[in-house]
């Protein structure tokens, strides 16, 4: 199992100085974040880590009352698959 930790502009799995997986965003104004990349190491691929990172980011956005613009192709694919994420998707 893996533990998702919060960073300044994202969430990650691993240690601060050795992230094994990460989703990163850039703030855009007061109520929007832009997801610019999601990275998962080869050792964690196929275990649902990327999906869990996107889900954690969605939970974060709901708590903060902000919208997400998923420029990262992986994050975009998760938003396309999960209609329940539409409440935080910037339209």
TrEMBL record:
Residues 3-90 form the N-acetyltransferase domain. Signal peptide: none annotated. GO terms for molecular function: transferase activity. InterPro entries: Acyl_CoA_acyltransferase (IPR016181), Gcn5-rel_NAT (IPR045057), GNAT_YJDJ (IPR031165). This is N-acetyltransferase. Keywords: Transferase.
